[in-house]
Amino acid sequence: MDFLTQEQQVEINMLKANYQSALADFLAKHDVVQGLNEKLTAIDKTIAAAEGEAEATRTERKSLITSILGGDTKPLKAAKAKERSAYALLEDYQELRADLIKEKQLLVFETMTARDNAAEQRNLAKNRIAEILRDHAIQVLCQSQAMGLLVSAMRIQLPDYQELPPAAIARLLQTNAEKDWFSGGIHSKDLESTLFEIRKAMPDIAPKIPDSITDLAAAVPSCNEYEWLSATARHRAMVELGLK
Length: 244
Prior knowledge:
The protein is an all-alpha fold. Helix content is 75%, strand content 0%. It has a domain at 6-143 and 232-240: Helix Hairpins (Orthogonal Bundle). It is elongated and about 125 Å long.
C-alpha cells in the first residue's frame, strides 16, 4: 500500500504484530489442549482394558467359590488378591483421568480467552485498515471522472412524481423550470437510490486486498473448536473453575 503515510504504516504494523502475538499464544495453548485430548483418549482405552481385566478377575473368583467348597482355599485367596489389585489399578487410572479432566477444563477456558483476544486484535487491525482503505478510496474516487458523473446524476435526478401530491408536483415543475440542472443540492433520497444501485453492482466487483494485509484476511484458525461465551457465561465459568 504505497499510498500509506509513515504514521499509518507504523500503526498497521503494530496492529498486525499484536494480532500475530495473540494468535501465537492461542495456537500454543490449542496445541496443549490437543495433547491433553490425546492423553485422555489413551487413558480411556487403558481404563476400558482395566475394567475388562477387573471384571474377569471377579468372575474368576466367583467361579472358584463353588469349585473349591471344602477344599484348599489358597487359590481363592490368590484370586481375591488379584481382583483387589485389578480394581485398585482401575481406580488409579480413573483418578488420573479425573485429574486430566480438571486440567483440561482450566486449559480450555484459558485457550478460549486467548482465542477471544486473537479475534479482538484481528478485528482492531481489520477495522483500522478498512478505515484507511475507505478514506483513500474515497479520495481517489472524488478525483475521478466517474465520481463527477455520479454527483452530477444525483443533482439532476428528480423525486418520483408518483409519490407527490398534485400541488407538490406543480411546485416542483415550477422550481425546476426556474433553475439549471446543477444548481440543486443532493438530497438523502438521491443518496439512497445511488447506494442501492451500488449495492446491486458490488457482488460483481472482486475484492482488492493489498499484499501486506493478506495474513489478516484468513479466518482465525481452529477458532470454532472452542465455545464462544457471553459475558454472563464467562463469569459463570470462572466461578465454577475457582477463578473468581
